[in-house]
Design goal:
single chain; about 650 residues; alpha+beta; 6-stranded antiparallel beta sheet
């Protein structure tokens, strides 16, 4: 895993060009501490840079920027091509190979097959830039689901790109301005979805796309339209139209075979590979298959919490002992969180408020002390109906359609008259009578979610209500221009007959690439750790979308197909347990050990002087949260993470 950066600029002297690209790549050293390289052509005004985390071919032959065998193309590449050895065998014999890296396979594949054909052949995760020396053309490309980040845009008359915003910020130019549309969407979701970034004029390349800049585009200051080489929508339409017709046993065996093949490929590398083990179905499946393919005990890592209701470390430890891994666990305390919170703005580079960013970073840092690569189970929820909203959302929508709006409004009002803690206590009185698959964690918060979505008019609005931090962010933004509202974006451009699959599609298009993958990439790369996600192999994605709903959701239990695969490796009692989710007790921490830190960031003078938010709206929620009347931790965390990020930027300036 690595960091990449570059630009095309006609205004810099040769010395400035070299100094600037050197400064930019220095900001990405955490992504690749093992080696750095720069290349520039002053006559074309282009500079490329690479910061390397050495995983495949540790020799100097893996150094980047790298030139193709024909010497026409240069590449800076971040990621892994898991099938690169197979691709290399299909390339012509006249290619003179200098080493064994997947980067060299990729650039020579592009030289021989062309970009689109090469992309269609690759199995992997990546973001890269290729410079065509003959046609004077820069191409940017990103993997199918967006595992690896890539920002781009114009700063003045300079076209610039990088793995992270901090590298773009290092370019000598006026400070970029905050995009209010992006800020509105951040408050709604807790992240900023592609193609937006927090800054005006700086974009994220959409997953499964590539972008070609000719010198004509550059001199005109134009960003051409990106081109798709892989489309989730096309895959879903095709697989839903021609579904898997085999038996249950056929489906179980085929999924296991795909997982074994994928995981075997992701064990590729010249360094040891370990895994995150949470104790949940997804990571347990990945680790079980990994260990079955390894002669030696794998290193596995889990994070737990002092608060028992959030802790899964005991379950992970039991599973590890049965599988036979070399297991390590990290128990997180409020003090651990406090130590890392001041660094979150720097780690995540733009406002980001998924609270599980804290344990994700801590476990990544913990694992990085032992190795350079970890596999993770992320992606399984989106493919196999794993989130409660995939099940509850459609049920709620069916019920809502039968209830008059006036009555729904009254129900919502009643729910909000009782605190989440009281709802928790009421639920726990009856939990003993519920079967395992109907038990839930944090019932009070989930009841509040239900009340917030009662006014929904479509299934997509139900989804937004379940996902949103602030359901009406414009109410707390100052000087908000409603014409900027872009909340629907391109998340709902596919209409499926089945509402459960529709919810899974929303998450695959929205939450997975913009939250889960961002969280994991930044947390791991801040620790110089590479993460790999077997469930996001496009062959597994395509198979999962071909299977009928009853193979995902059966008798109100999610992930049926995945559970059946896991039963081949683990006893059923370790599989059939309620989903906890990877989170922290941030609500209690904000009332306790994090209260002073939060008070400073929410100070009236700070909020009012910045002129982004209505102080009174935030103060009301903060007071209600501190008193215990309501749990506004999710909403408050979005504000706190923005304030922390903004404070860092102000101090830098």
């Amino acid at each position: 895993m690595c960091g990449i950066a570059g630009f095309i600029s006609p205004n810099l002297s040769e010395n400035s060009l070299k100094e600037t690209i050197t400064l930019m790549i220095s900001k990405l050293e955490h992504r690749g501490p093992d080696d750095k390289g720069i290349w520039f052509d002053y006559s074309s005004g282009i500079a490329l840079a690479h910061s390397r985390l050495s995983i495949v071919d540790l020799s100097k032959a893996g150094h980047q920027p790298m030139i193709s065998s024909c010497e026409r193309y240069l590449i800076v590449f971040n990621g892994e091509i898991y099938n690169h050895k197979l691709l290399r065998k299909k390339l012509p014999d006249w290619i003179i190979w200098k080493g064994n890296s997947d980067t060299e396979t990729l650039i020579n594949g592009i030289s021989h097959w062309g970009l689109e054909k090469t992309l269609s052949k690759t199995v992997g995760m990546f973001a890269f830039a290729v410079w065509d020396r003959e046609q004077k053309k820069l191409t940017l490309a990103r993997d199918r689901f967006g595992e690896k980040p890539l920002y781009f845009g114009f700063r003045g008359k300079t076209l610039i790109f990088s793995s992270e915003l901090k590298s773009i910020e290092a370019f000598p130019d006026t400070s970029p301005n905050i995009d209010m549309n992006s800020l509105e969407m951040y408050l709604r979701y807790g992240y900023i979805p592609a193609p937006l970034s927090i800054y005006k004029g700086i974009h994220k390349l959409i997953p499964g796309n590539y972008l070609e800049f000719s010198m004509k585009d550059f001199y005109a200051g134009l960003i051409p339209s990106s081109k798709k080489y892989w489309s989730l929508e096309s895959i879903i339409k095709k697989k839903q139209a021609y579904p898997f017709l085999g038996s249950n046993k056929d489906a179980i065996d085929h999924l296991e075979s795909l997982l074994r093949e994928t995981i075997s490929g992701q064990l590729l590398g010249d360094v040891p590979v370990g895994a995150f083990l949470s104790g949940g179905i997804d990571s347990s499946t990945v680790v079980s298959i990994m260990q079955s393919q390894s002669r030696n005990a794998l290193n596995t890592f889990t994070v737990g919490f002092e608060e028992v209701e959030f802790d899964e470390s005991k379950s992970a430890k039991i599973i590890s002992s049965l599988i036979g891994t070399n297991h390590s666990e990290l128990i997180v305390s409020p003090n651990d969180a406090m130590r890392i919170i001041p660094d979150l703005a720097e780690i995540y580079d733009e406002p980001f408020s998924d609270v599980s960013q804290i344990p994700t970073y801590l476990i990544s840092k913990f694992a990085a002390n032992r190795l350079k690569v970890c596999l993770s189970g992320d992606g399984g929820d989106e493919l196999f109906c794993g989130y409660s909203r995939h099940i509850v959302g459609p049920r709620i929508w069916r019920i809502l359609n039968k209830i008059p709006y006036s009555l729904r409004k009254a129900i919502a009002y009643f729910i909000h008259q009782i605190s989440p803690t009281t709802w928790d206590n009421f639920y726990y009185l009856f939990e003993v009578f519920l079967p395992n698959h109907l038990r839930i964690n944090l019932p009070g918060l989930k009841i509040y979610k239900i009340s917030d979505l009662i006014n929904s008019e479509t299934l997509y609005e139900v989804y937004l209500s379940l996902l949103s931090s602030w359901s009406s962010p414009q109410n707390i933004l100052l000087n908000y221009d409603s014409s900027l509202n872009n909340s629907s974006f391109e998340f709902c451009n596919l209409n499926l007959h089945d509402s459960h699959h529709q919810m899974m599609y929303f998450d695959s298009k929205n939450y997975l690439p913009n939250d889960i993958l961002v969280k994991l990439d930044r947390a791991a790369m801040a620790s110089s750790l590479e993460t790999r996600l077997p469930f996001l192999d496009h062959r597994i994605i395509e198979f999962a979308w071909s299977t009928p709903l009853e193979m995902k959701l059966k008798n109100s239990r999610s992930k049926w197909l995945l559970r059946e695969v896991l039963k081949k490796y683990l006893p059923e009692n370790l599989i059939d347990k309620p989903k906890r989710g990877f989170t922290v007790p941030i609500g209690d921490w904000l009332r306790g050990p994090l209260k002073y830190w939060a008070n400073e960031l929410l100070d009236e003078k700070n909020i009012s002087s910045q002129k982004y938010f209505s102080y009174n709206s935030i103060k009301t929620k903060w007071d209600e949260h501190i008193s215990g009347k309501h749990d506004w931790s999710k909403q408050l965390w979005t504000i706190l993470m923005f304030q922390s990020w903004l404070q860092k930027k102000i101090l830098k300036i």
